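The instructor's notes for this session suggest beginning with a concrete chain rather than abstract definitions. Hand out the sequence below and ask the class to guess, before any prediction is shown, which regions might be ordered.
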Amino acid sequence: MNPKNLLTELKRRNVYRAAVAYGVVAWFLTQLTTQVFPFFEISNSAVRFVVIALAVGFPIAMLLAWVYEFTPEGIVRTEDLHPAQARSIQRATGRVLDFIIIGALLLVIAMLIVGRLPFYRQTGESISQKSIAVLPFENLSEDKANAYFADGIQDEILTRLSKIADLKVISRTSTQHYKSAPENLPEIARQLGVAHILEGRVQKSGDAVRVNVQLIQAANDSHLWADTFDRKLTDIFSVESEVAKAIAEQLVRP
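After discussion, reveal the predicted structure:
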């Protein structure tokens, strides 16, 4: 099929509208689950399942939008409709999709507005004590290229912590715009909805690595645990494992 004809056909069959509608609704559902699931102490694996299911469902939804149409008689294949009837139904379907897009966008805007209201913001009493955010690790090495190495250590620690069922771990996407060692930890913890903050510094020289980590209780800005690890590059994974284990002992113990 000619690419120009393909684009025209995608527009005629409302595949573009379906893609936008699906994207807006999927984003709304993702935001809803990330805010509601932690309130009921549902593990992060459930949130990941929702995100993966929505991602897998996208190409399936686009295929269905291309192949089928909604008619008063039910769902039928587009190819089985008379061209004039197909155009009329597709215009009606387009209007329905427009309403879905507008409605979902209004819900998203309402969620953003409500989330900023003072009465909606989480307080220290409502935040689970088994919750943590891992801030970006600071690169202390002179070689700025080692910033990727610091990011890698942060990612690995996040991955190991997220496997602890009783622990709520904020994703890297939500923490990446915060700098390491911020001045107002309680405010950052309140924004992220966590009781604890993990911050760290990484210094790499040759095949030697030094990792400093601090676990901080945000409510009173006090240190619960801190340690320094000096390792060779070949043994760096043990540091990530030790940090995750130490945090689990501090936060998930009975």
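Then share the key points. The chain has a mean pLDDT of 80. The first strand starts at residue 68 and ends at 71.
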